[in-house]
Amino acid sequence: MHVIIEQQTNGIELIKISTKQGKIVFTNYAASIISWQVDDNNIVLGNAVEADEFYPTHPFFFGAAIGRYAGRIADGQFTINGRAYQVEQNDTPHHLHGGCNGMWQRLFDYEVVEGDDQVQVVFTTQMCSAEDDFPGNMDVKVVYTYDVTNTWTIEYFAEATADTLFNPTNHVYFNLNRDNKVVDNHQIMSDKLQMFPLDESGMPELETIDLVEMFGTKAVTLDTLFTSTEPDIAQQIAKVGGLDHPFEVAEGKLIVSNRDYELHVTTDMPQMVLYTFNTPGDWEHQMNIYKPHSGITIETQSLPNDINIFGDKAASILRANTPFYSKTTYQLKVK
Ligand code: G6D
């Protein structure tokens, strides 16, 4: 294992880790993953060359740690212990991904811990109620481990001073294709593929669509979804131009694959949002080289807006002075 730190401007540092087969690059900006090359194929979207210009500017959450809350909260409003809170409506009229003072917009402190078969990067930051209007201040630690089995592990640790919400994720976009063509050829596979439809306001509804039953297979190609004439699916795909939907999979395990690779995702979070980068045109910038479906995110998290759906039973509630822990792994296997 080999680690190099590269300093760019704006306080941005790149942490470049390499093994015989793989190279992964993280940055202290939003504790982001910037690139992940296995056999010289980069499987994540990002920009290592101009990271210092790119990351503080783009609006797509590339590879960023997201928090306090991944996904939308309807109208930015929620109630905990009978008290109503209003957080930033940065995705009018909703709250999205922790708002403009969220984890995706800050420089983290970090420490590198080198072992024989793995390297860990321990990122830390503090979230303050005065900055983002969520209740309580919170210490957050995000630990990335990269090892010789081509596995990237994310562990989240947090503790808050008041009852609050915490629903972290990572917004990495994958594209397993060597030629970087769109991800429509990627397959999603699990014993259970339950898709949560979105209502008119973009919030998940609880009557899930069972894709395994609908398509009679545990491995569904994205193109099959995008061109499906099943009314329930066609309507959902048309609504957002692809996938931007929560899924529940069997035992938190999902495999995303193309002809050459299998990405094995394992999580202890209850759901995951699959987003196929449907509207990259929203950013007019010379560094925007993306087209719709250039990548797919697998955002392991609890259901967006869960606090307004399940109330006191929402998985995203974190009680005061109670440690939070969650783990997600992405392992790349060459076929
Ligand atoms: C997210 O779910 C959201 C999308 O709707 C948004 O457009 C994207 O981040 C940038 O995953």
UniProtKB/TrEMBL annotation:
InterPro entries in alphabetical order: Ald1_epimerase_CS, Aldose_1/G6P_1-epimerase, Gal_mutarotase_sf_dom, Galactose_mutarotase-like, GH-type_carb-bd
Pfam families documented for this protein: Aldose_epim
PROSITE patterns according to UniProt: ALDOSE_1_EPIMERASE
Keywords: Carbohydrate metabolism, Isomerase
Domain of life: Bacteria
Isomerase found in the keyword field: yes
Assigned protein family: Belongs to the aldose epimerase family.
Protein name: Aldose 1-epimerase
Organism: Staphylococcus americanisciuri
